[in-house]
Amino acid sequence: FGPLLPEFLGGSADLAPSNLTLWSGSKAINEDTAGNYIHYGVREFGMTAIANGIALHGGFLPYTSTFLMFVEYARNAVRMAALMKQRQVMVYTHDSIGLGEDGPTHQPVEQVASLRVTPNMSTWRPCDQVESAVAWKYGVERHDGPTALILSRQNLAQQDRTAEQLANIARGGYVLKECAGQPELIFIATGSEVELAVAAWDKLTAEGVKARVVSMPSTDAFDKQDAAYRESVLPKAVSARVAIEAGIADYWFKYVGLNGAIVGMTTFGESAPAEQLFEEFGFTVDNVVAKAKALL
Questions:
Q1: What is the rounded CA–CA span in Å between residue 171 and residue 142?
Q2: Catalytically annotated residue among 7, 31, 44, 164
Q3: Residue 150: is its pLDDT beyond 90?
């Protein structure tokens, strides 16, 4: 969509090859100010503050990018963007313990939750290319505040969808995998953990359990839906719910209730290969299935 948006102006805090924010139409701004890409250097706060100024000037759609962990360096400017309801797309990659060997100093745990609870901020953690495209569209079309896109380092499975499911992605949460009739159990997952929820759903379905998978890339967009839609996705009658996200666990009690289960983080990460870390912290099919069965 870049060629269709001449107002698109942004860059990365010295992480463009990792954030993948350099696109085919990017032209660096240097002595020639006719470009559209800013090499900010290692200055996350400065980058975000400059983007706020660009948004306040008007006429441009600014975007910024860095690792999610480094949102901490940009925190004040991020908060000001939300406070001023400025249109800005904030791209944060390397979003979890999936970062791997860089260790807990670089592995986000509480950052997604902190963005979600920031007033006027819309936060999206997509599970594949399709949800990512919808998240970008949401951020581009939004004019009443900033949008944070939370993206994973690792490759993710692409999910199959019907036309109705495609349309419902923009509603923030939707039924990705369904059973016949009323479900006994609901999985709620985001980002890289959606494929884990689908794998657990496959296993339980084969055992005769009636389960549903809800992909919830944006809790704030879902919360804005009417009560009828929210009830159709998360019916109150189904109290057996398991939330799965490689971020701080406590946030998800809002959706699973005090009697639900959460597969999430309760500590900082460790330094090890990503696959080993996911197993160590319980992000496995066997653990998710065990958590689910304990609720039935």
A1: 14
A2: 44
A3: yes
Q: What is the mean pLDDT of residues 119-135?
A: 98
Q: Please tell me whether residues 177 and 144 are part of one structural domain.
A: no
Task: Give pLDDT tens digits for 226-236.
Answer: 999 999 999 99
17: pLDDT confidence band, cut at 50, 70 and 90? low
CATH code at 7? 3.40.50.970
- What gap in Å lies between CA 39 and CA 273, rounded to an integer? 30
Residue 158 inside a domain? The answer is no
- Boundaries of domain holding 216: 163-293
CA angle 112, 116, 118 (to 5 degrees): 120
**Residue 192 falls within a domain, yes or no?**
yes
The answer as to whether 87 is a domain residue is yes
Give residue 276's pLDDT band: very low, low, confident or very high (50, 70, 90). very high
φ and ψ at residue 192, rounded to 5 degrees? -65, -15
| Beta-bridge partner residues of 201 | none
Helix segments in 142-284, DSSP class H: 163-168, 194-206, 219-223, 227-233, 253-256, 274-280
Which of 97, 121, 150 is where one domain is finished? 150
* pTM confidence score: 0.94
Annotation marks residue 44 as catalytic:
yes
Give me the mean pLDDT over the 1-24 stretch: 77
Assess if residue 156 is contained within a domain: no
197 and 213 Cβ atoms separated by less than 8 Å: yes
How many residues are given for the chain? 296
Give which of 163, 178, 175, 202 is closest to 285, Cα–Cα: 202
Provide the 10 A C-beta neighbour count for residue 143.
9
Supply the mean pLDDT for the chain.
94
